[in-house]
Amino acid sequence: MRIKVLKCKLHLATVTRNDLHYHGSLTIDPDLMNAVGLLPYEAILVSNVATGLRAETYVLPGTPGKGQIELNGAMARLGAVGDQIIIMAFVDLEPGEIDGHQPRVATLDAGNRILEHIDYPPIKYNDRA
C-alpha cells in the first residue's frame, strides 16, 4: 500500500503571466523549483487562493532569476496576473519510507522572492497510536 503525501510547496506564488493559447503547463522560475525540489515536467496541483479553484498540470522551467509563475493553456483559466496561487507536488511512499519524510515548503512575496522556508515537522508514521 502506498500513501500519497506532500513532497513540496510554493506558497502564495503570484501569477506573472497567463497565455491561454500556449500548449499547457505552469512555467516556474527554476530558482524557485530548486528551492523546494520541483522537477521539470513533474505533476503538480495548483490552487488559486482567492477562488479556491484547483487544477492539475505539470512544471515547465522558465528563466532563472525572473520570478516567473505563468499559467499556460487551459491553466490560464485558473487565474489572472496578480492572483496568488499555491503550487504543490506529492509523492507516493511505502509505509516504511514515510517516517522522517519532511516536505520542502517556501512562502513567496508578491515579486515571487522567497520570504521564508517553512520547516514542517517530519512524519512519524510508525509512532502513531
From TrEMBL:
Binding residues for substrate: T57
Cellular component, GO, one term: cytosol
Enzyme class label: lyase
Membrane-spanning parts: none
GO BP, sorted A to Z: alanine biosynthetic process; pantothenate biosynthetic process
Main localization, broad class: cytoplasm
Pyruvic acid (Ser) modifications at: S25
Cofactor dependence: pyruvate
Compartment(s) where it occurs, according to its Swiss-Prot or TrEMBL record: Cytoplasm
GO molecular function, one term: aspartate 1-decarboxylase activity
Keywords annotated in UniProt: Autocatalytic cleavage, Cytoplasm, Decarboxylase, Lyase, Pantothenate biosynthesis, Pyruvate, Schiff base, Zymogen
Keyword match Cytoplasm: yes
Top-level division of the source organism's lineage: Bacteria
Post-translational modification as stated in the protein's UniProt record: Is synthesized initially as an inactive proenzyme, which is activated by self-cleavage at a specific serine bond to produce a beta-subunit with a hydroxyl group at its C-terminus and an alpha-subunit with a pyruvoyl group at its N-terminus.
Pathway: Cofactor biosynthesis; (R)-pantothenate biosynthesis; beta-alanine from L-aspartate: step 1/1
Record text on subunit structure and interactions: Heterooctamer of four alpha and four beta subunits.
Alphabetized NCBIfam families for the sequence: panD
Function: Catalyzes the pyruvoyl-dependent decarboxylation of aspartate to produce beta-alanine.
Protein name per its UniProtKB record: Aspartate 1-decarboxylase
Native source species: Singulisphaera acidiphila (strain ATCC BAA-1392 / DSM 18658 / VKM B-2454 / MOB10)
Gene this chain is encoded by: panD
